[in-house]
# Entry
Amino acid sequence: MPTYDFDLFVIGGGSGGVRAARMAAQRGARVAIAECAELGGTCVNVGCIPKKLYSYAAGYAEAFEEAAGYGWDVAKPHFDWARLKANRAREIHRLNEVYESLLDGAGATLIAGWAQLVDAHTVMVGERRFTAQHILLATGGMPFVPELPGKEHVVVSDQMFDLDPFPKRLLVVGGGYIACEFASIFKGLGCEVTLLQRKAHLLSEFDEDVRDFLAQEMRRAGIDIRFNSEIASIREIEHGLCAVLARGQRVEADVILFATGRVPNTQGMGLEQVGVALDDRGRVKIDADYRSSVPSILAVGDVATRQPLTPVALAEAMVVVDLLFGKGKRRMDYAFTPTAVFTHPNVGTCGYTEAGARMKFGEVTLFSSEFRALRHTLSGRPERTFMKLIVDKASDRVVGLHMVGPEAGEIVQGFAVAMRAGATKAMFDATIGIHPTVAEEFVTMREPMPG
Ligand code: NDP
# Structure
């Protein structure tokens, strides 16, 4: 048996990497983890966490607006961007330290620096050389910006948290999670927002009714959404930037955010030399056990996964730890992964879209509801809520659950348990609602949609 410095060497200290390192170390494995930046990866530093904090900040604008209808007179609110940035930075720094102490407490060795593969069991970090029985790639992803004249003037999501000064006019390019979330957040914080999407809808992977409803609500909130629009070039003008669209129109802005997707972080790590194959989308090619084409090298999270979501990376990491250091082989089930888009209002979704369900199950029954939530009867805000259930006709199983409305992420998380357990529409119907809530609508939809 060859002897190695470590049982597991993790490259990347984001959600998946830290989880795998920590849990493997807790099981007695000798673990090292290399990270070249702050611990916590995209989620903690420039993703989920700061984004949600800013989303809360944007929510206060709505709360101030709503307060009058409930009898509160609020003096004209003033927003202090510098204070929000400083408070966010302090909280993120605290989380970075929490991650470090979790690793430390579990007995994992943290190695600061850029890791490169040398062979199937060897990693270099700077001048230091380490060997390990297993190597786990958990290097995540990064924003992708297509080539275009003036590309150097745009920013990506990583930079949105520390913009200086706060932009008066923001142009967002893209119609996915990140584009929609930042459009909503910056609109809420007081910015004039235009969103350009190359297709005729937002959120391509989502249910069609959800996409249409969200676009309607975002427009109602004052975001200028332009579909079938692409940027041809960008140039600096006296006061800001000017984007020239493919069809000739111009949009002026102080900041142009490209939220045009993300690509896996696979460069500069020696993957090619060691023979780790990539798939057609540039992700590390893995088998059902997360092993790459080099069996001692595994990969989890955004660098390899089909579902680039933090909780998926955490779950994949646990499957790998069980496989290598414990409970043995098990498979992760990617169906019915719930997800939310933290727009205002939120989108929450679990299971199949209507089109996906028809393809997978054949005949489906649809239920949907659109209403103005009780809260807004006095708040005066015109925001509406949408909910939709998709039921497999043959089994009566609820195979799609979708919502656009307040706290959709929180609500759908709860229903996701029922969905995974295989709940039928009859079980939804037999569930007593909590009155008065928005969520009760999911258990009181009785009349199928025609067609
Ligand atoms: P998405 O894949 O969600 O969206 C990318 C958007 O950019 C799409 O609208 C796409 O258009 C558009 N696009 C792609 N290439 C071009 C191009 N060359 N020119 C113009 N438009 C283009 O990516 P995101 O970066 O927003 O998010 C990445 C992933 O991160 C998400 O899929 C999600 O898994 C995760 N994420 C999750 C969040 C959450 O859980 N709340 C929050 C943020 C990210 P088209 O629709 O035509 O393909």
The pocket of NDP is lined by residues 146, 173-179, 181, 197-199, 204, 230, 259-262, 308-309, 339-342 (CB under 6 Å).
